[in-house]
Structures are given as structure tokens and as C-alpha cells.
Design goal:
The complex is a heterodimer of chains A (60) and B (237).
Chain A: H1 2-26, E1 32-38, H2 48-55
Chain B: H1 4-33, H2 46-49, E1 58-64, E2 67-69, E3 74-82, E4 91-94, E5 97-100, H3 109-112, E6 113-123, E7 126-129, E8 134-137, E9 144-152, E10 156-170, E11 177-191, H4 198-216, H5 218-233
Parallel strand pairs in B: 2-11
Antiparallel strand pairs in B: 1-3, 3-9, 4-5, 6-8, 6-10, 7-9, 10-11
The chains are: A mainly alpha (60), B alpha+beta (237).
Chain lengths: 60, 237
């Protein structure tokens, strides 16, 4: 009788630990999101004039 | 005591001076708030307006898992879609009142060029698929979405950058050009539990649940079996 009770107690303990592991392993972790507005001016053809001042060191 | 006539002349002079001062002040206030003197916001300079552009306002959305269990995989998504507003409208604020301008238009880049969107992720220490640059055509009014599968094998913090570039290929031929649109930083933290990643924890949890149930609930099985046997042995009325 005593051995039976000990066995049931050990079994219950194993069930609790296993449920904890399953919860940790299956819990949804969520998602992060970031949204930016891209204006048409940011999607324009790059112009060579824009590079020239930097190349000549005229900026700043 | 000044003579009466001198007092009258003095008052007229003072009144005239006050009138002149008030007139000068009001003209200064008017020029500060006149539309011509206010610099409107968000209107591109004339030189920018002449350059062809993708004539849509777009929204770039990056979605990623901030936390992952070591060994598990998840998806990172980058979407470039047309924004609901669509066109760029300049506005200016004048004396507390908003003044709307004309819709700004650009020569449509789609008319003269094929536009391709290229994206890639720079993040070290994780298994990333695809790990090379991915390209998709960008069509008017259509959105493009890029997907990556990411799998950190070890515990730690992983930092990286999600890049998006546009390629402009002239329809008439000639040299193509490109422009980096966005470089967004992202961080992923890989965690474990008592040294176990996601898959080992789930496997151990499942096996443990079965074993524990057998150990602790065997009395229940025996009781149920006995009850069933008793029902079968009862005489039928």
C-alpha cells in the first residue's frame, strides 16, 4: 500500500514536470512588427548630380 | 497752461503718430502670416519633382519573431505594399489653419523603366533560408512580399539588418540604376529551458506525461476494469 502511494506520487510529479515542459515548448511567443511609409521621393531615379558634391567634397 | 489751440494741435499730432505706428505694426503682422512668406512643409523642391519616381506611396512592413526557442524555426516577412492614401499631397500650416496644396505628381517611372525589388537579410549565427539576395518585379498597384526562415541553433542574442533595394532597368535599354530604400535593424533572442531547446523539451514533456499517467493513474484503470466486469456479471431483468 505504501509502495503504491509512493508510485502514484512519483507519477504525479512526473506529470506536472512534463506539463511544464510541454507548456514551455508549445507556448506561442508572439511577433514584432515595424511599419514605414515610403514616399515617392524615396523611390526616385538616383541622379548623378546628387553624387557630384560628395565626390568633390563640396558638402559640409 | 498751454493755450487751447496749441493743445488741440498737440492732440492731433499724437493721434496721427499713433495711427501711423498702428498701420506699420499691422502691415508687419500681415506679411508674417501671408501665404507667400510661409515655407510650406512636405513639398518637394521643383528639381525633385522633375525626376521620374514610383508614383505611389508605399508602406514597408517588417515582421519577425523577437524570441525563439533554440533549435526552433520561424518566419521573417518583409512586405512592400501600396499605401491607402496613394498620392502625395503637400500641406502647409498658416496661422494655425491647414492649407491643402495640389497633388504632387512625378513622371511615372513605370512608363520608362522595369522596377525590381531586391531584399536580403544580414544576420550572423543563425540558419537563414534563403541566405542570398531575393528579387521580385515591382508592378504598379501590386505588393511584394519576401519570406525568410530563421533558425537559431544556440542560445543568444542575434542582431541583423533587413535590406530593401530597388533596381530601375530602362525599357529602352541602357544602364540600370539602383537605390537602397530601407535598412531596418532587427533582434532575435534564442532561449532554452534547463539547457533544452524547443524540440527536446516537447519530446521529453510528451514521454513524461505518458509515463507519469501510467504510474499515477493505474489504480483508475484497474477500478474502471472492475466496474465493467461487475456490470457484465449482473443478471439482466
Amino acid at each position: 500500500m505504501k509502495a503504491r502511494n509512493v508510485r502514484r506520487l512519483v507519477g504525479l510529479l512526473i506529470v506536472l514536470i512534463s506539463l511544464t515542459l510541454l507548456c514551455w515548448g508549445l507556448w506561442p511567443l508572439g511577433e514584432a512588427s515595424r511599419s514605414l511609409l515610403i514616399a515617392p521621393t524615396q523611390m526616385q531615379l538616383p541622379t548623378p548630380e546628387g553624387w557630384l558634391p560628395a565626390l568633390l567634397g563640396l558638402v559640409g | 497752461m498751454l493755450p487751447k489751440r496749441l493743445r488741440q494741435v498737440g492732440m492731433i499730432v499724437v493721434a496721427a503718430a499713433l495711427l501711423a505706428w498702428a498701420t506699420a505694426c499691422s502691415s508687419r503682422v500681415a506679411s508674417r502670416f501671408s501665404p507667400a512668406a510661409t515655407t510650406p512643409t512636405s513639398v518637394p523642391p521643383p528639381s525633385v519633382q522633375g525626376i521620374p519616381a514610383v508614383a505611389e506611396t508605399r508602406r514597408l512592413t517588417l515582421e519577425w519573431p523577437p524570441t525563439l526557442r533554440a533549435g526552433d524555426s520561424d518566419t521573417i516577412r518583409l512586405t512592400l505594399e501600396v499605401d491607402a492614401l496613394g498620392k502625395l499631397t503637400p500641406t502647409a500650416e498658416v496661422g494655425g489653419h491647414e492649407v491643402g496644396g495640389e497633388v504632387v505628381t512625378f513622371p511615372n517611372l513605370y512608363d520608362t523603366h522595369n522596377v525590381w525589388a531586391e531584399a536580403w537579410l544580414d544576420i550572423a549565427g543563425v540558419n537563414l533560408k534563403p541566405d542570398e539576395h531575393v528579387s521580385q518585379p515591382l508592378l504598379p498597384g501590386q505588393s511584394v512580399t519576401f519570406y525568410w526562415s530563421v533558425q537559431p541553433e544556440k542560445v543568444g542574442d542575434y542582431r541583423g539588418t533587413a535590406w530593401l533595394k530597388l533596381h530601375f532597368i530602362p525599357k529602352a535599354g541602357g544602364e540600370s540604376s539602383e537605390r537602397v530604400i530601407s535598412a531596418q535593424r532587427l533582434e532575435i533572442r534564442a532561449v532554452n529551458l534547463l539547457g533544452m531547446g524547443g524540440a527536446p523539451a516537447r519530446l521529453l514533456g510528451g514521454v513524461g506525461l505518458l509515463l507519469g499517467s501510467l504510474l499515477s493513474l493505474d489504480g483508475l484503470v484497474e477500478w474502471g476494469w472492475k466496474r465493467l466486469q461487475r456490470r457484465k456479471s449482473l443478471p439482466e431483468h
